[in-house]
Amino acid sequence: MNTSRSSASTIIVIGTGIAGLASALALARKDQDVALLGPKAPLPPARAGEFDPRVYAISPASQQFLAELGIWDLLPPDRVTPVDAMEVFGDAASASADALRRLPAPSTGRVELSAWQGGLAAMAWIVESRELERALRQAVQMFNIRWIADRYAGLERHAPDAPLMLRTANHASLPCGLAVGADGAESPLRESIGLPVTRSAYDATGLVMHLSVALPHQGRARQWFTPDGVLALLPMPDADGQPQVSMVWSMRTAKADALLGMDAATQRVAMGERLFEATGGLLGALTARTSLVGFPLALQTASQMVAPGVALVGDAAHLVHPLAGQGLNLGLGDAKALADTLAAREAYRNVYDLRVLRRYQRARAEPLLAMRLATDGLYRLFDSQLAPVNWLRNAGMNVVDRLPPLKRLLVQGASGR
User: Fold this and answer.
1) Residue 17: pLDDT band by 50, 70, 90 thresholds?
2) What letter would DSSP give residue 346?
3) Long-range interactions of 165-169: CB distance < 8 A, separation 24+
């Protein structure tokens, strides 16, 4: 194996999705020797009126990080929607919008948060996955980062404290000092080094689609804790002259499967009726613009984020419930922390030094634990159908809504700063 200085300091990022691209770019901007390993599937061109079904709520901290990487200004402004405020409703899903606002009773919990309460330009920005990936690819190309269009197949190490040799599906051998696993929840890299994960499947499926709405969304994200699960409607750019929102509904699996199994026409009617009922008509009639897509939900955590010569970022290290929309923001936080940690290491330490990598793990421990506890705790709190729990959680929401200092802290905490 080649153990020259150049190969020992090389970092190979495995995975070419958003987390992998952002990690490689952050490392390159810190003057690290970095390459990407993974497929380079073509991206379809952007077309007016056509939107990627997968969108992300980019937090202020992530927006700042993307701006530092030179990514933010590459995004088309007409495909980015700022979220000025957020409304969260409790369990009274069938109540009308006026009733939800009028009733102070604990049975109809409601919290409204706005960007100005935290002194922010926006609480978040809604961005299509495809547009974010397109901008990252442009930046990667501008930085001339080497992209090895192959698949990871395994690794070899000839000593515990030594560089690695990565093997690819096309039988190439790639020497490197550090392998960064940005290869998703099933992470082949994590599996090959034997890092176990703790996984807890929710009895829920994430249903995703875009919807035309009869009434303007006013730049507000809205979330309902319904008997079927957590429903979120995120503001999107207008489409074909109509207001548009993106739906994420973490619905109980049995009910989600029933909807996914319907023919398109029946599904369209059923979703329109369920959504109108769940939202209390707050946005008027809701009409599907895209087909309904579902994915299983789970809480998953790797036992460690690092091992000798290996660091995990994004879904390879952690999965959380999507009710707070923080999955990608956590991955971008990983990318920034890893690049900062490696750039700040002592000159005599290698990129694969476990002491250095553990600094990265420690830097991410608190924010990851906090988000995991918050999202899982909220899910389980609102999943309970016991009457006393129902009363307390909705009463709690009303109390929070009447305490501006607490709301300010919540907004600032959600910003990731």
Assistant:
1) very high
2) -
3) 165/1, 166/12, 166/14, 166/37, 168/37
In angstroms and rounded to an integer, the radius of gyration of the C-alpha atoms of the chain is 22
Contact indicator for 173, 165 with CB cutoff of 8 Å: yes
Helices (DSSP H) in 38-113: which residue ranges? Answer: 60-68, 97-102
Question: Across the strands, what pairs with 404?
Answer: none
Q: How far is residue 407 from each of residues 107, 138, 203, 238, 356, measured CA to CA in Å?
A: 20, 38, 31, 29, 37
Of 300, 307, 299, 301, give the one whose Cα is nearest residue 194: 307
Phi, psi of 192 (to 5 degrees): -70, -25
Q: How confident is the model at residue 48 (pLDDT cuts 50, 70, 90)?
A: confident
Question: Mind listing the pLDDT tens digit for each residue in 281-328?
Answer: 999 999 999 999 999 988 899 999 999 999 999 999 998 877 656 789
CB 371 within 8 A of CB 219: no
CA 306 to chain centre: 21
Half-sphere CA count of 300, side-chain side, radius 13 A: 19
What 3-state class would DSSP assign to 63? helix
Distance CA 245, CA 222 (A): 10
Residue 336 CB-half CA count within 13 A = 19
Name residues whose C-beta falls within 8 Å of residue 383's C-beta, 6 or more positions apart in sequence: none
Alpha-carbon torsion, ordered 162, 163, 167, 172, to 10 deg? -130
Strands of 164-168's sheet, edge to edge?
152-156, 164-168, 173-176
216/55 Cα distance (integer angstroms): 19
E strands within 140-188? 146-148, 152-156, 164-168, 173-176, 178-181
- Helix, strand, or coil here: 51? coil
Give the three-class secondary structure for 189: helix
